[in-house]
Queue: 2 jobs
Job 1
Amino acid sequence: MNPFKKHTGIVTLLDLPNVDTDQIIPKQFLKRIERTGFGQFLFYDWRFIDGKKPNPEFEMNADRYRGASILVARANFGCGSSREHAPWALLDYGFRCLIAPSFADIFYNNCFKNGILPVKLSESQVETIFQRVRRTPGYTMTVDLEKKKVTSGDGLEFGFEVDDFRRHCLLNGLDDIGLTLQHEGAIRAYEARHPEAAPFPARP
Amino acid sequence: MKPKTMFEKIWEAHVVHEEAGQPSLLYIDRHLVHEVTSPQAFEGLRLTGRRVRRPDLTFATMDHNVPTTDRSIPIEDAISAQQMDTLVRNCKEFGIALFDLHSPDQGIVHVIGPELGLTLPGQTLVCGDSHTSTHGAFGALAFGIGTSEVEHVMATQCLLQDKPKTFMIEVNGQRPFGIEAKDVILSIIGRIGTDGGTGHVMEYAGETIRGLSMEERMTVCNMSIEGGARAGMIAPDEKTYDYLKGRRYVPASAGGGFAAAVERWKRLPTDVGARFDRVLRIDAATLAPQVTWGTNPGQVVSIDARVPNLSDFPDPNARKSAERALDYMGLQAGTAMTEIPIDRVFIGSCTNARIEDLRHAARFVKGRRVAPGVYAMVVPGSQRVKKQAEEEGLDRAFIEAGFDWRESGCSMCLGMNPDILKPGERCASTSNRNFEGRQGKGGRTHLVSPIMAAAAAVEGHLVDVRQYDLKNEP
């Protein structure tokens, strides 16, 4: 996994609450057996008309947001299906950081596993960013995970909270399977004392 | 000793390792796997040279992608077929039991887990699917995970987890006739919103919940995720033990430890005086059949209500969401819900495709006909449900009424297989999500209970089932 320390990029907007993972990556694209190549299908039904022409009414499609790598959205982003194809699609499209007042649990978790930083800010802070981005074409921000701060050249500065362990893993790009395997002794001891972890006989 | 919730007891019994400032390392008793969220996890194991630590605790089936038409015909969609073949190869390579397309045990992962007795009280159970919350109906801690976590469980049989908060939802009072488990959970989601349970594990309690059958409890727990919760659970009781007894993977009654297991399970329910972070109380006697009008499961009203007005939403984001939903759904504010015509009916999904669901719907359609112009289909949750329904003659009731009777799978709940709505088509559906495009691009979904779906098929529009004298029908 790529570490995330500090990232500066163009900010784009998705002005809807409760964006579900079915919208982030519709089901017809879940049939691939790889982790890559999902970016072209990101927000597919919203981004494109008839699957081809970019939809001019979808804010993110505007030229001013080209190359954006920070997505700012409304509350409960990523609700619904557990599909990790959603963060894979966001990452493949170029997003490294998501900002919203809240995220759904499974999606939030999935982001950290893929080197994407989801930042929770208050409704009013998110609203401030929406207004500044709309006023200023090419608006960029810097997200600093070490300092837990979101800043911009116009003086905007918001601190954010993130769990220390998740922050540590993301800063260092740690693979948590590797971390868990360091507890092999504890896992083995647990399996020896826990009835449900006894060898499970094959049944007809 | 400090009184504990059922969740706390199960959590504490599964902690393998704990350190201040870190998530807990939790042992996972059962891992269920399906074709869509597993290929990248298996590939990850191969790339790192890792094995599945406990193939004996891991079980796979194929459900999301499978066609619901004749299984003897080759699968037309080459990419779907490749995903299923990949699962077959992976299960073989890593030594995992697979209930494949042609197995009599095949079905939706959350239907077959309980059927086979893979889900037991007091366990931790995970699957790369958000509706894993279903299994909480047995007093298990069951939750959906992403593919990276699927790989983590495969490699370690553990997960790193932050301890969620607890949310008790107590439902008391006599359910009026025509009010099903689906109406109970939809009305809960309507009250708390689709993010009301975020960061929490729900425990459903109260006399109404105790009165539900095991299958009805599964319907309630299934949709916990639609209220944003990590998991939903219901304390095990005699109904739970009766359901489990004799199932394939349950300890055998004769000398297999079933009685001892029951004694352990009896210690699981929440202690008197245990504290929850949040509590919601609902009176079931006041409930009406529920139907969604919008594009998330929280946008729901009683069937005797009207499509809401934008002025009903003081919060600007909720208003924006409602405005968009009304536009997508093609609905006018103020329209009576019962006047909304439908084109399609789907009875199926991990929420409502078990035998009792099909019995309720079949009993209604017997002697009635699907309205002209409506296409209605029944997709049993598993091959076992299908077989039992056929033994009971439910298939004939559906077919004679004009329903299409299919093979088991997820089908039009998410439309990964060919079962989808056409743009603009409106469907009364027993599934769990009414998101934009969920059942097909441009398709419009109204979530309802099985009997409400059956009634909508017959009338050609959404209908209040309480208008029928069902108690006195044969």
Job 2
Amino acid sequence: MKTQMAAVRPLVAVERSVRIAVAGNPNSGKSTLINSLAGSRLHVGNWPGVTVEKKEAAFERRGERIALVDLPGTYSLSPYTEEEVIARDYLVQERPDVIINVVDVTNLERNLYLTVQLLELEIPIVVALNIFDEAEKKGYRIDVPAMEQALGVRIVPTVATKGTGLDALLEAATEAAGNPSRHRPRRLHYGGDIEAAAEALMAEVLRRSPGLAEKYPERWMAFKLLEGDRCVIEAAGLPGIETMTARAAGHLHSAHDGDIESLMADARYARAAGLAREILTKPDIRKIELTEKIDRIALNRFLGIPLFLAAMWLVFKLTFDVSAPFADWLDAVTAGPFTRWTRVLVGLVRGPDWLISLVTDGVIAGVGSVLVFVPVIFAMMFFITFLEGSGYMARAAFVMDRAMHSMGLHGKSFIPMLLGFGCNVPAIYATRTLENPRDKALTALLIPLMSCGARLPVYVLFVGAFFSAHSGTVLWSLYVMGIVLAVLMGILFKRTLFRGESPMFIMELPPYRMPSGRSLMIHTWEKGKHFLLKAGTYILAVSVLVWFLLNLPWGVEHKKDSYMGTVGQAVAPVFKPLGFGTWEAASSLIAGVIAKEIVVGTMGEIYVPEKKETPAGPAPSLSADLREVGTSFVEAGQKAFTNVFSTAGIASISEKGESPPERESLRAVMAKTYTPLSAYAFMTFVLLYMPCIVAAAAFKHEFGTWKWFGVAFVYQTILAWGMAFIIYQGGKFFGIGG
Amino acid sequence: MGFVDIVLAGLIVGGAVYLLYRSLWKKKGYCHGCDSSG
């Protein structure tokens, strides 16, 4: 597996290079620590399992090149989960110069279990006692010198979110890397029987294959062979290794029914627990902490799911309230001054008329129609990042556990699904955190039903045109529809493609934390920039191609008769029973297969008026336009502020009666072309129809086969058509919104 | 539409197709900006 390079600053005159692996339990703050040290932007969240693979951030310090490798969070170094394998392979095979072991000091004993295993690798270690401030608040006292003495490694208290202790940590790590012999960690004794068996086994193994000592740390390899670790046994490649192990550990085998792995785990736990008892003093009177108080409500078996739904509703309402005025502002600027002045500029370079049309009616109308919704996407990502950072997302997975069990999955599968609200592609990759291949495939199949940010522009366009008074609720209903259908489809798949028992769910619930402003900004930007990059790459490319398809054969008078119009007309009857059987809707949906935002981009191009009306009176000057852009931006800010504190919903979208000067806004066109019922059916179809091409590639990449994408394509297309049909025909039958 | 127009249009379409191929297919679903992706 490749390492992702997250951030590399320019390096000059580097004297020495130091590779530091950052290892620790899930949610102990490894990525935050690296981000603080290296100024990088690795994804962090207050929930376990954020880092799925190892990532690297490099920087220069006092002439040294420091490369920090962020390993996935693991509780042990057993080869059972993808994260454990990635972390272990890196540590054993790549042998970093030093390991920074990030220990969540509020869960010391459990974190020390991993520390004990890291010590076995005999690589210099520095322990970061992270989240030290919270431990102090709880009244914990930690005897750092005693811990250093017991483990034989440097211990540095840190608060990664505030940057506290990080200079000392880095200093200790580079010092340890420079003098590995002086910083060799202490060998913790696991008891006479185990140690004797390991020694005897190693002596025999090295006698038969001395080269193995170069490949693996001897003592660690002995323990792994004793445990019967298949990966190490295969890598060692020694014939008769089982016999050798049995001979060396005959006494252990007979005393423990051959379950040496459990024996080893007990020995390590005993060391971790003993150490924690020696160095940690907790206050006698235990306060009921805020996290527990909140969890009594948030995890209540009756209130948990309603609260989760309410939290989602609030996210969508706030998203709309904050972003809609800015979306309106961008819409007016793109359709007005920007289009006008681009036309002037292309005219100045004497571009032919078709080129002017390609730029304004193709690129600006197509890409611009999508970019208008960037404020909405960023607002949404901000609130999702807030929920992730606060620790609530882990609770969401927990409260969904029962619903997930009904479809043969567990709450852990809900985490990749929650990631799918941002973008389905990383969510499909995140299924690798699931141990069972059956769970992975089933979860991946359900992820496209989670409404990703790319579908948001479509919803906002239609919600703004038809449901402005209840925008948050309508948007929320679409997301909830996705979740409910995922549960129902999961149950169906469980009874057909994926028979089997659902495994037990054990998940760590992190304490609630207030995410820092810096972290919120960085991660909102990291999530949102994906959409800006898409706009500059394939949305741009598709806009250009769509413009040609709408204008070919060359000189075609009506778009309806163009190549795109002809294909749209051929497909449109399929959508007639759904309430949007027009060639414009059909063409947009076909183009949206590439990425869902392209539905809006294509509509933007299709609905550009074929005959341009010249605005009455002289065009405003550039300075007047710039003044107007600035003034309207300030007004948008004021409206956003008012909206947040107003219970009446969105002021800006509902006021949107006037058209921008250069072309009618897409929303106004939609209001004339659709009915509220057909608009809702259209949004439902966009929510559910086949995954985009990038998600298809992710399916292929992750599973190595097109099979699961094929299943997703077929079931989603049927589901989308069926649901849109039920909504439109049902609504007509009952006389709703037609 | 003259010869120059046809060449220019061909170059633009070729560029768009290449951009699409590069961003959608060549990178095998790599998600820009999604740093938890594969």
